[in-house]
């Protein structure tokens, strides 16, 4: 295994990551999330900038394998996540993307927080569609028991999620040094997300208890951009 992924914070934005792009070939892949507390009136301009300007720039960088963007229009919280074939590729891209991130922050109208993760689980039932929504759950656990928690996610949560109407995909990102993690579950529509809420709460309580983790935050987002390859890391 590589060394634990370090978390770097730039500015006071706060947050982590959401729906994640993935690798076609399996193995260990990594993600960098960029959280911005945007001005709500700037969000559409920010989405267009990521789609039309940032994504083509990322596609020119070795090791880049996908980009997603989550948006909460009410709070202004936006989370862009890029996936990388290796930890080396992710870290080598950091300096290349510094000015790209700064420009994106200007357009969104907010400051940035940068986090780096290992993608421990990534399962897709089918490709996301326009109008998809994501429920993200941030957790914290004992780093020494992280692999046990990952196994619970794979063996207990994923099969249960497959039974939800409108389920699209699920991912689990982890920081092996801190014990932090974030689970993102994507649904086909806002209606499917809403319909899953009560059942999802019950399932989350059961899974977090079995995995030995503490739920820190649960948020729901519009999936505004998903340039993803078909993943399977489960």
TrEMBL record:
Region listing for Disordered, in residue ranges: 1-25
SUPFAM superfamilies: Dimeric alpha+beta barrel (SSF54909)
InterPro entries in alphabetical order: Dimeric_a/b-barrel
Gene3D superfamilies (UniProt xref): 3.30.70.100
Biased composition annotated in UniProt, kind: Gly residues: 12-25
Protein name, entry field: ABM domain-containing protein
The species this protein was found in: Pseudonocardia asaccharolytica DSM 44247 = NBRC 16224
The organism's taxonomic lineage, starting at the top: Bacteria, Bacillati, Actinomycetota, Actinomycetes, Pseudonocardiales
């Amino acid at each position: 295994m590589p060394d634990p992924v370090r978390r770097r914070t730039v500015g006071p934005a706060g947050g982590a990551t959401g729906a994640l792009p993935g690798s076609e070939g399996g193995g260990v892949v990594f993600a960098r999330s960029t959280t911005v507390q945007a001005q709500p009136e700037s969000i559409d301009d920010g989405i267009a900038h990521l789609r039309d300007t940032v994504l083509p720039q990322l596609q020119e960088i070795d090791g880049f394998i996908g980009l997603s963007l989550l948006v909460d229009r009410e709070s202004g919280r936006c989370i862009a996540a890029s996936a990388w074939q290796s930890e080396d590729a992710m870290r080598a891209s950091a300096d290349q993307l510094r000015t790209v991130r700064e420009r994106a922050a200007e357009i969104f109208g907010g400051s940035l927080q940068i986090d780096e993760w290992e993608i421990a689980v990534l399962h897709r039932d089918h490709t996301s569609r326009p109008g998809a929504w994501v429920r993200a759950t941030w957790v914290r656990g004992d780093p020494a028991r992280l692999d046990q928690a990952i196994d619970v996610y794979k063996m207990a949560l994923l099969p249960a999620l497959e039974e939800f109407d409108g389920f699209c995909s699920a991912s689990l990102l982890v920081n092996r040094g801190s014990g932090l993690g974030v689970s993102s579950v994507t649904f086909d529509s806002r209606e499917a997300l809403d319909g899953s809420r009560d059942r999802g709460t019950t399932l989350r309580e059961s899974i977090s208890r079995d995995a030995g983790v503490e739920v820190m935050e649960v948020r729901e987002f519009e999936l505004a951009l998903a340039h993803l390859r078909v993943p399977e890391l489960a």
